[in-house]
Structure to design on (342 residues):
């Protein structure tokens, strides 16, 4: 019997039944999907485990970067232009490192968001983390803490300083992993493949790095990108004076290490790191975490914290320092023309 006493043909009855089944299906599917969402939202990840995994991912990626360079099998391509107009290089080292790093993390924690500078359509690497935690991390980080999986965003740079990599300026090359929780950087790993040097930090728990004992602010030595050292020169001299030493260098990871007290002798020393144009978060997140763990700061040029959730780009420039009055540095910076944000 059809509703309200209306007689239906056999075809009408069939249609009516199908409509009823559709309503039931959607109600049931809604219940199931809400339960799945509730289940996944309860997943947690231990930050000490994630730090150890990040170190292993950076090291494995670094092995590929080094191997490709030593075998001279770069297969160099240009994937576009940077905001400064320089060619943006892509090599087999970038891609091989991406596969190792991305899939090692994703296979271990498939429900965690992972953002990489590179992308490829190859099959999934089969590697899974062996859950070994290095002795220096065990010594410095007692237990770590669990955080909700859906609060985590991981940023990986499989090969920072690709331009320098193609030029054989290998001291600038790093692989990097950063873990942000609710947009705040809490784990940073910067690995130098050609020396085997790895810097790591877990904010609030420990690091294998430390600041230098002294920094000179009268005037500071400022490290900047090789790609736009000329453009930033006037900006820096207006802030700190015409005698300011400007140190051009490749790779955002290298520039952060230059602010610290690394054991790696090929890293030059700087007092402040400034970048005035567009930059991606996988370039800077790991360094931000390292500086934060050591009491330092990495902010926009206006002194605002950088949010490491959402879009990959930071258009507000950056200022990085440690063991100095960061807000005093911000106050010295000249007005910044928004047209430079690209």
């Amino acid at each position: 019997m059809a509703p309200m006493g209306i007689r239906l043909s056999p075809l009408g009855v069939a249609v009516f039944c199908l409509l009823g089944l559709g309503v039931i299906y959607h109600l049931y599917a809604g219940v199931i999907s809400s339960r799945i969402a509730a289940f996944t939202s309860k997943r947690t990840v231990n930050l000490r485990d994630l730090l150890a995994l990040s170190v292993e991912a950076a090291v494995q990626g670094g092995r590929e970067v080094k191997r490709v360079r030593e075998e001279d099998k770069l297969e160099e391509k240009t994937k576009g232009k940077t905001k400064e107009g320089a060619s943006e290089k892509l090599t087999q080292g970038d891609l091989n490192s991406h596969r190792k790093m991305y899939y090692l993390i994703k296979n271990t924690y498939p429900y965690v968001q992972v953002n990489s500078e590179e992308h490829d359509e190859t099959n999934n690497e089969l590697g899974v983390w062996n859950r070994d935690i290095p002795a220096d991390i065990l010594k410095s980080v007692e237990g770590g803490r669990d955080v909700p999986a859906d609060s985590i965003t991981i940023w990986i740079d499989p090969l920072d300083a690709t331009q320098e990599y193609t030029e054989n300026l290998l001291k600038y090359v790093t692989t990097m992993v950063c873990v942000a929780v609710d947009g705040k950087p809490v784990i940073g790993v910067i690995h130098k493949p050609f020396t085997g040097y790895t810097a790591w930090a877990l904010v609030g728990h420990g690091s294998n790095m430390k600041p230098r004992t002294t920094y000179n602010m009268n005037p500071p030595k400022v490290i900047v990108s090789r790609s736009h050292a000329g453009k930033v020169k006037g900006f820096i001299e207006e802030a700190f004076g015409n005698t300011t030493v400007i140190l051009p260098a490749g790779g955002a990871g290298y520039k952060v290490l230059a602010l610290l007290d690394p054991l790696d002798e090929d890293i030059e020393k700087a007092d402040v790191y400034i970048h005035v144009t567009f930059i991606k978060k996988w370039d800077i997140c790991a360094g931000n975490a390292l500086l934060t763990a050591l009491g330092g700061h990495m902010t926009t040029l206006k002194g605002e914290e950088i949010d490491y959730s959402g879009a990959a780009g930071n258009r507000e420039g950056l200022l990085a320092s440690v063991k100095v009055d960061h807000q005093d540095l911000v106050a010295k910076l000249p007005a910044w023309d928004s047209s430079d944000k690209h």
In short: The CA atoms of residues 21 and 199 lie 59 Å apart. Confidence is low (pLDDT under 50) at residues 15-19, 23-40.
